[in-house]
Every structure is written in structure tokens, then in C-alpha cells.
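Hey L., structure's done. Input below.
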Amino acid sequence: MSTYQAVEVRNQHEFQLVARDLVPPAPGHVRLRVEACGICHSDVLAVDGLRADPSAPVVPGHEVVGVIDAVGDGVRRWQVGERVGVGFLGGQCNECDACRRGDFVNCEDQHQTGTTTDGGYAEVAHVRASGLVRIPDGISSTDAAPLLCAGLTTFNALRQLDLRPGALVAIQGIGGLGHLGIQHADKLGYRVVAIARGSGKEELARSLGADHYVDSEAQDAGEALQELGGADAIVATASSGASMTPLVAGLAPRGRLVVVGAAFDPISVNTTDLVFGGREIHGSLTGSAIENEDNLAFSVNQGVVPMTEVVSLANAPAAYDRMIAGDARFRMVIDLAA
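Output:
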């Protein structure tokens, strides 16, 4: 075929289904026939115009799984026919100071899939080879897609903790990130506390592996955690600084609050909660391509599976709106292979 379909967005929320010309991949890139793409809250950067030039069209989507159908000049380790993926971090430059020190996540010329470069709301995607992730056998493309961002985010946040088996770990928020974080924490051998507003998600949280449930509407989450002995770590996934504020007081001495839910409002902290007990607040941003392969291997081997709702490419804008409204349970995924 000489053209392919893509859903573009420009300015604020101006979606359009368009036909694009099929072109060869640039040097150092591969071209994918997209099979699936997750719809993530971070797509707001493209859809709401929170980028350098909102008037320029961009294809959103950074949980992309597809099959390589062409490779650009200089690409040596990837072959036509391989099933691969790419997450939000679309490939490091390997030349800046951060890359030279092995800090690929903070590369100064990192492609941001679906924001600074076109993403996966399309039948075809072009990806920098350094951002590619091999997809293992034993998982469908629609299940693998959300793991490339939501799954990696919670998996890496937990893996960085280096806690003892049986440590008390809380997952705040049971949504697209949190429902995977509970599974990861359980499979890593921690005693898991799920924190959410209301009692409606308690049964689900326990079925995913939570040992305890805290209804943050019925009781102060920090006090509830202290009643359990204090959390060795809390992974905060809800996009609300206000909801994270009470959590610091629930940490055990040397405990750490790991923030993965990006919010526009601040976290308010009582300095004594930090000073007395040596507690920390730490941010975590997804991970590198090879860490994503670790994440997929762990998820497949341990049975960590996202809960998804599958839609067609033409229905991607409506699915995005459903996700933003909080109506998705729990990850919306575009199926382009159907």
C-alpha cells in the first residue's frame, strides 16, 4: 500500500482521521506495522497541546506494539518481521552527557513517542532503533501495549526500592497504573496495601493481590498506614498532589514515597515528617528500553496482565475521552491487527 491511516491531533483536542503517505524509515529508525496501541493519560501532552508547537499535527500514542516491515540505514540489530514495541521514551541519542554515563532515561535528545514524534494511533509508526523493545512470546499485542508504559512505570518504581521480602508497600490509586502496581508488588513478594477513594474497589484490589485496603474517603490514609506499622514504600499513581499529601505521614522510618502520577497541583509536606525518620519523596519516570524488556519478561512469567477495553482506530478519540473521564476499566487499547 502507498498510504496508511492515522489519527492526528493539533491545537487542543482537534482529532482527525487522515491518510498519510508511506515513506521509508530514516537512518537509525525502523518502520512498524502497528498491531496495538494503548491510550494513556500522558497522551494529554499531545491532545491538549502541551508541546512546543500545538498547531503542528502529531499522532498521539506511546504504548505501541507492531511488526518491523522496514529498517533504515545503520540499523544492525533489528530485522524485518520482529515484533517490537516502544514506550513514552522513544529512543536515546547515545551521545549526550547523560547517555555517556548510562542514564538513558534522562537523555537530552530523547524522543517522546506521541508527543515530540508521531506515535501509535496509526497503522504505521517510525521508531528510533535505540527505543525498541522486543516483545516476548506468550502475550498478545493488546495486552503487551499497556505494559510498555503503565506497566514499566510501576515495575521500575518498585524494583528500585530494594526492600526485604514481606515489606509493607502501598499502591495509591487503583486505575490504569495502580491495578498493575498491585500485581507487581504482590509478585515481588511484598505485603501490599491498596489505597483508593471509596470502598467500591476493595474486592478488585484484593483479587489483584492486595493484603489490605484503605478507603481514603473514610479514614486518613497516613494514619491507616501507621496502624499497619508504617509503609516501607508508597507508590503514588493518582494524578493529584492533594491526594498524595497525607501519604508522607504514613511512611515508616527510612520509608520512601515514589511519585509516578504526574499532577499539576503540588504535594504539601510537613518538614518534620521528613526530618524525623529520614523519610524521602522520590520521582520515577518509566525506564529504558532494556528495562522495558525486563518488565515484559517479569509480567509474562508472573502472570501480570492489564485489564483492557479494546477499540478500533476510528474510535480512538472517543476512547481517549473515556479514559480522561475516568470511565475506562482500566486501559483503553486500539487494536489495529483485527
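The mean pLDDT is 97. The chain has ten helices and 15 strands.

-- N.
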